[in-house]
């Protein structure tokens, strides 16, 4: 088992890059929604932001792995207080870790200073594979490092559960943002459990009641329990945010500096 988990962990960056290339190819042959007027510029800008996110994630990922190991060695967290069968511990750990991510994502929308950074991900007027990693570096630090370190320690997340969770969450993140149409039946069945591409796209709608919904990263349970979900179809959605309605607002420099500028947000 340990060998398999090591292999899965080592494969995660390879899977991420392979998925980005695969979905890029599919969405350019068979796009679902209308692509942006200047596709090359859109991909180019998002590519620069994504590269920074990817590298930052790689560095922060090492810190999180260190925390996962320390948690196991020192028996920190909830799950380490009980003698649970391993599989049981992994399942509960994965569910709790996803729930923590759901709560953090709520905070990223509800706490004004966190929203200033998180809204860069929501500012994209066109969703495609390049939107998957369009995050402000500070937003990456909040969700990938601060939350993951705290979540791992509080839950006592076993390394196996951490690796399995990442192996589901990473490909799902790419699928959720890609401009690819998924078979309606598969969407309908899969969203009973997983935050499918059609489910997550509602989170990118410009209307605030939709933006503040569909927070779940991997599972749909939490949004169903808290009533933060709806039934819009991806082709019915207006994507982006009102304050990012001009081309100049999507320049990399503007996106990186905007959280520090005079507030232009319509919500806070
Ligand atoms: Zn969000």
From TrEMBL:
The Fatty acid hydroxylase domain, residue ranges: 90-228
Highest rank taxon of the organism: Bacteria
Gene Ontology MF annotations: glyceryl-ether monooxygenase activity; iron ion binding
Subcellular location: Endomembrane system
GO CC annotation, single: membrane
UniProt keyword annotation of Chaperone present: no
Record's keyword terms, sorted: Lipid metabolism, Membrane, Oxidoreductase, Transmembrane, Transmembrane helix
Transmembrane segment boundaries: 12-34, 46-67, 87-107, 152-175
Membrane topology note: Multi-pass membrane protein
GO terms, biological process: lipid biosynthetic process; membrane lipid metabolic process
This protein's name: Sterol desaturase family protein
Provenance organism: Mucilaginibacter rubeus
